[in-house]
Structure formats: C-alpha cells, structure tokens
RNA sequence: GGGGGUGUAGCGAAGCUGGUUAUCGCGCCGGCCUGUCAAGCCGGAGAUCGCGGGUUCAAUCCCCGUCACUCCCGCCA
C-alpha cells in the first residue's frame, strides 16, 4: 500500500476545495460513462464521489474500468466543487467530488452475495453467513458505533462516581438455580465441569464483602435457554453493585446513568427520578411486568360488575375464581373495523385465552354480540365504571387471572402499535417495584422471583417462615418503553437469613454448603449491606436504535438454534479432544 | 417440548384448482456511452424450484417426512 488516507470519505466539504487529498475505502456503485467514470467510495465515516476523467486522470481512467462493487481502493486527487446543479444532497459530501490523479487497487472483491449498502430485506440466513459483509452496511455500522459510544458513556459515568471496573471469571461453578448452564469440561479435573456465568452475581456480592464498595462491569453472561427476538444465549450486562446503600441508592445511580446515556446517545432529556409502579399494579393495569408507559389503555377489573351475570362466559370465569377485565379504547371506535376486532381473538390464543368480547359504543347506543345477555343494571354499572361514551370500544377478557392479564397485556401492546399510540421518539422509563420474594412453582413450593440472594423487604422479615409466599422483596426492575432493560435488588447480607432462604427454597444445608459455601462463609466476615442492578446492554441498544431484533445490536449474533452461521459454531470436535477431556458424546442418532 | 410463517438463478420476488421452453426486477458477464449518483441503452450467461420419499401418465404446485431461517407459547433465578 502506497496511498494512505489523509481524510475520511465523510468529511470533505466545499471548504476543502482545491486540496489534494487521499481517500481509502470500498467502491459502492461504479458509473462508467465510457469517458468519465464515477465511483462512490465509502468507509466507516461516509461516502464520497470520486471522478476518473480521461483528460485529468490519464491512465488511471483505464484502471477505473475494472473496478467493481466492494473493491478496495486508495485514491489521491483534487477536491473540486461539483458543477452547478450536480450537487447531491443525499450525501454529506455532496457539494464536492475528488478528481483522481493517483490510484491504487488495494484489493478486489468477489461479487457480494447481497447489496451491502442496502442489506435490509435479505433472509437472515444469507446475512448471518456473510456477517462480515452485513457489518459493512450503514445500518450495522451505525449500531456498532452507537454501542461503542454507549459503553464509553457508561464507563465514564460510573467511574466518575467512583465505581471500580472489575473483571470476574468466565469459568465458574454451576449453580442449582436459574437458567440452564453452559458447561465447560475440565481437562485437569476429570469428570468435573466449569459453568459459564449466567451473571457475575456471586462474584459481585463477594466483592462487596471485600470492601470494593462500588463495582461495575460490562459483563458477558451466558444462559442456555431458548432464544427470542430479544434474547441471545450470550449477552451483555452492565453489572453494578454497591455497599452501604438501599434501594433508593441503587435507583438513584441507575437513573443518573440512564439519563446520561439518553442525553449522550440520543440527545433526549429524561426526567429523574423515574416513575414507579408496583408489580401488582403493573400486572393489573397493564397486564405485564414490563409495561409500556408511553400510552394509556389501562386495564380495568370489572369482575364485581358481573358477579351475578347470566352471561355464560363471564359467569363461568367469575365462578371459577377467575376475573373479568377490559380495556376502554376511548374514541377509537372509528379506527377499528368489525374485522379488526375479530382479528384480536387469535392474539390471545398463545396465552390459552379462549377469545375476547367487545362492545362498540355508538350514538345509537352500544353494539355488541354479548350485550343482550346483560341486565340493564349490569350495563349501566359497566358504562359508569368504564366511563364509556359514544365512540369508545370496550374489549373484554374473562378467564383465570393469569390468562386475562397476559391476554389483555398483549392486546394492549398490539392495539397501541396498530393505532400508533407509542411515540418512538419518546423514552419512557418506569421502575417496577414491590415484587413478591417468591412465587409458587408447579408443586406450590416457593421459588425465587428474582434470585435466591434477594433480601426480603424489611417489614416482611417476620413472616418469612410463617408465610413465605406473602413476603415481598427489595427487588426492582427498570423498564424502558415496554422492554425490561434491567433488574436488581438489595441482597441478603446476613448468613443466617441467607441460610433460611435456601432452606425455604428446598436447598438443604448440605447442598447450600457445597454450592454456596463460600457465600455463606463470606457473609460471616462482616458483609456490608449491599445491593445492585444489572442492565441489559443489548436491550437498551435495541430501544435506542429502534430495532425489533437483538441481532441488530450484536456484531456476531447466534441464530434461533444458537448457532453461528458464519463460523459454524457449535461444531464437532475430534475424538482425541473429547478423550483428553474425559468426555463421551452421545448424539441423538446414537441413542437406542 | 408445542404452534405459526418462510425456503424458486448471487439477491428480492412471481408462478402452482398438477401439463412438458419456470417469469420478472436487481446483480453478474460483454458491448455502447464524458456529469452520473442504487446512471442509461443493447446483448448474454445463470435454477438439480431447500432435501428425501409418496400419489400421478405427469409434481415447483398435492400428501408424508426432514433440514434451515424466523416469530410466538413454554423456558429465560
């Protein structure tokens, strides 16, 4: 290589006219007019039109004929003002072009499998196989730039508050609770395995015992669970832990960090403190533990209105201990056709909802397939409760509380999308608080809602043993535009209480000793009160970049089957490698 | 583990109540062209219709299975 860049492809303006510059980059489109040839040269910073003129560029012009899309070029030339009327407003450098005087073909390119600059609508399979090319696209380059900036802001913000960035091991120990672990066999310890961390939880608590006081880490975490559009098997958490603080302290730090992030990354001013809602209220009013607060459409419980109704569906639900809830779409009657309403039914099926009912309020009175089953008193009571008037549509679900809640939560989100209620330029944070400490698993036994190190709320310390399922915790989730972007809690710092919680969870003393002995020990050596939070960096970036797929914010994401189409991971390994690790492998085909 | 969607040339799509040369656009290759800007004009190549099996005189199309990608439920302390 002879010609090294003096400028990027994104920075030349009319002020640079007359300068001799050198650009490096990739050829986008090549427009060969036989005489003059135009090539759009781009790099990470932008795109500049370079011109090969037979008179100006001499034999360089011949070489330009051979240039194809994605060839790698270095060009030297003169910055010239474009002829009158030939400016291109679509690009930032559109006032000028570079007249080539020297040229170096740095590399050729095979014909790309897709248009790199417009890689939007290509099947994921093709894009992921050639991820190195897709990453050349403006969309992903932008995502990587923003992600990098976000990480800088996070580091700067937390370091300025005296947090220490401390790395914790990737090779750890399998834990009995939580998600499935990714395991790593130990060569020098035959038959034993490390586990990749689901989060650095136990390390960061240990660091608090160590007196680090304020810790953070931008940590890779691993969970071997099925993927979703917002879930990858390996993902990144902004992991934070603080000593001598309570819920308020952690929330304050988090709010400061997120507000800073919003200001620096998208120039949005976010007000702090963030609003809060209890878990119970969130489930009741929004049918979700991660409510999108950018719009209303609150859910109302009308079970009591129909306690003695003759309408079969409602009657059954109420009788079976379920609930009847509804949403009033105030003034949206005209925006929802009969078909739109009918199309809502399939949306509740995944949650085992049997269907929905609706009432359309019109000037001529209510219209609905179910209204004939209501008494006048029920109708009146309902309309009063729901403040229903002409132009409204009320949508009902009746079933068990869980089904109704999930169904209406999903409908609420769907309708908001359909009616365009969620302002994409708004960043609406909300804390979800007052979680139960435990939830009952299938067999009715307590299982941690958050994780087994979460402290019970102070006022519930005494009911911990008598009525564990009624105890609430000092846990909190942070939600941004309906996306759960983080969660944390105040931790148990007493060995005695930690032991008690383990036993409530059915982890006997011996197992607790074996798996968490170090934690129980550490808690005995002057563990300070402490708590923290983990923020999902990938999800934050999704919201900031307005994308629906977590793959758009990760350089090398996995497919839904957790494989990497570019590298072929996971792959087979030679038998010798397995032998060395004392591993026998039984793929399904070999199982009798 | 379950349910939905997709798979046709390098890419994006059409075709299909089953009919013999599978269509279009982009890209690619060749030619022409001195101001285009995801240039234009002319010509050309390129497809085991994801894979396997079945039904049929005949399958891209119907049936069964399977693989890949994707969305959702379960799962994700």
Provide a descriptive summary of the structure in words.
- It is globular, with a radius of gyration of 30 Å.
- The protein folds into three domains: 14-107, Beta Barrel (OB fold (Dihydrolipoamide Acetyltransferase, E2P)); 141-277 and 430-553, BirA Bifunctional Protein, domain 2 (2-Layer Sandwich); 295-421, Gyrase A, domain 2 (2-Layer Sandwich), CATH 3.30.1360.
- A hairpin with a 5-residue loop joins β18 and β19.
- The chain has helices at residues 54-57, 60-65, 124-129, 131-134, 138-160, 201-209, 247-266, 279-286, 312-319, 338-342, 345-348, 376-386, 401-418, 495-504, 509-523, 537-545, 575-580, and strands at residues 20-32, 37-43, 46-52, 72-81, 96-107, 164-165, 183-185, 193-195, 214-222, 234-243, 276-278, 299-301, 323-329, 357-362, 365-367, 393-399, 429-433, 438-440, 446-448, 475-480, 483-490, 530-536.
- The longest helix is centred in the first third of the chain and has 23 residues, at 138-160.
- It has 592 residues and is of the alpha+beta class.
- Helix content is 28%, strand content 23%.
- The protein contains 17 helices and 22 strands.
- It binds one RNA strand of 77 nucleotides through β1, β2 and α3.
What are the salient characteristics of this protein?
single chain, about 600 residues, alpha+beta, OB fold (Dihydrolipoamide Acetyltransferase, E2P), BirA Bifunctional Protein, domain 2, Gyrase A, domain 2, 8-stranded mixed sheet, globular, RNA-binding
